[in-house]
Amino acid sequence: MDGKPYLQSSGHLPALSTLDYVLFSLTLAFSAIIGVFYGLQDRNKKGANNFLRASGKMPIFPVSMSLLASFMSAVSLLGVPTEIYNVNTTFLWMVISFFVAIFCAAHIYIPIFYRLRITSIYEYLELRFSKGLRLWGSIIYCVLMLMNMAIVLYGPALALHAVTGFTLWGSVLSIGLVASFYTSLGGIKAVLWADTFQCTLIMTGLLTILVMASRQVGGIQNAINVADISQRIYYSDFTFDPQVRHSVWVFMIGGGLLWAGIYGTNQAQAQKAFALPTIRKAQVAIWLNFPGLVFILLLCGLIGILMYAFYSSCDPKIFSLITASDQLLPLFVMETLGNIPGVPGLFLSTMFSGTLSSVATGLNSMSAVVLHDFLRPIFLTNLSEENSTRLLRFLVLGLGLLSLLAAYGATRMSGMLHTSLAMYGILSAPMLGVYTLGMIVPWANTWGAYAGLSCSIGLMSWILLGQHAVPSPREHTPYQLNTCTWNNISLANHTMLNAENLRTIANSLSSMQSQLQYGERPGLNSLYSLSYLWYNLTAVLVVFIIGIPTSFLTGSSDPRKLDARLICPIFDVLCPYLPEPVKKTLHFGVRHQDKYEEDEEKEEINRSNRNGRLGSPLHYGYYNTDRHHEVSV
């Protein structure tokens, strides 16, 4: 790195230029235009099926890109480089999580949902267990998505505002309103194609930042060498200690279950798979996510290494140049590339593209759940297809305003990536456990599902409250301040430390030089120290440990009477080359042979009948209720 960094030599960060604001505005405008285009194109197509599922006629490419973009939000884009900077590269083992999750989604969960021809995946819970459990699952999903949208709207905007001075509530409002606008006009088609544009922009922006910023640290290899010397390059943590946040086993098991919940039993992702014409194409679209996820993760990881190499001898957070780790990447981009015309604008567009995608996906899926699981079956049983489309548009707009109110409530936030993933562990993982219980345990009944879900959510909530009451020390690899030369530096909203404070900070840092060591924490404190990624395994295990005995105590289901379409022959999936007699034994009495034959014969007729209609086996008689033995409670 030749000469001083921009901030040290000038005393301030570069201001955003008109070009930067133009690039951000163009990102919003192009996303809105996509919504207008599909709103006009489909203005004569009435029916919720077209609005929510594109009548099952979408090509693979936009669906795959949308699946990739939806949960690769600005939270992840800011959080992953920060994780690498603060700790080490162990987080890159998340690639194992992606593989496990995509396999489970493509071959266990999505095929069952798709072949039932349902629109809300919570219909499965009614078909397998009871209507009450379906409503409970729908409520949990709506709460989860509102919380998630609040985080992805407010958190990144706050981090970018603190460093760049970019308007906080102006960005929150513009993102929320634009996402609501194009989703309400164009439905899922607009969401899928806008996500494709935004995902392309995310990858382009990250790659541009990586290439241009690498020049500031003497190249990527030099940055890796610097990080390696300072213990940031580390891949060999194979510990089973549940108190260690990240290890190979944590990602393989806990992370795999986390992402299985996101890709396999999440309404937002499943609904996109329903927009494809065949289950085979849905599986291809899901698998195409794997290289994309790995590519984005590696880009974020390498950017994190560049960040550390740049600040390796003067940590800006300890120096109080920033107030939260989530501001590291914006600071790095502005200091290294902020004087290059258009680059800050590209960075803003990259970050907020992730937010746009997440919010639009959440709005579209929540509108489907609210209409299909609450309004239509309970209050609006005779709603016409034309009115259902109109109602869906109003629902999207109303939910968009609600998400902005939720974002307004998220005024205190730190560690966005940790908060977001922990939230999924608490609410999404118990639901993953219930779906898995229903699909692979044919003896499970309604009461077992209720008991397992209740205990799982209760335990995970207890652990979360305990962690807030008895917080564990955050894991960090040592920082340094030995070459800090910042003096009287000002950012967009704060005047930072001057030279008089440097000696005090350096002295206090000397007592914090050693890396965090995990010690024994007695009693319940050891439970509260559980890694957030182990939440997922814990939640699923609780559902099984409580749900299976409860089912047998209250009268287990008879596998021979179950509709085989509700059950996944898990050993057929995991061990496809077993002899047929062995496979049949491992079906445990469930009659899987020819279970889709009748559906395939009627598929062409049903597809034409469902064109413009909400494809629900519960409401339109596609589902043979004689094959479903549970009594709703």
Word description of this protein:
With 633 residues, the protein is an all-alpha fold. It has a single domain (14-471, 529-553), classed as Up-down Bundle (Sodium/glucose cotransporter), CATH 1.20.1730. The protein has 26 helices and no strands. The chain is globular and about 70 Å long. It starts with 5 loop residues before the first helix and ends in a 13-residue tail after the last helix.
Report the strand count: 0
Give a quick account of the main beta sheet: strands, pairing sense, barrel closure. Answer: none
CATH superfamily: Sodium/glucose cotransporter
Distance between the termini: 68 Å
Helix percent band: 55-70%
Structural class: mainly alpha
Q: What is the highest CATH level, the class?
A: Mainly Alpha
The count of domains is 1
If you compute it from the alpha carbons, what radius of gyration comes out, rounded to the nearest whole angstrom?
25 Å
State the helix count: 26
Morphology: globular
> Which CATH architecture is right?
Up-down Bundle
**SSE order, as H and E?**
HHHHHHHHHHHHHHHHHHHHHHHHHH
Oligomer: single chain
Low-confidence spans: pLDDT under 50, at least 5 residues? 488-519, 610-615, 619-633
Strand content: under 5%
Please name the CATH topology.
Answer: Sodium/glucose cotransporter
Average pLDDT works out at 79
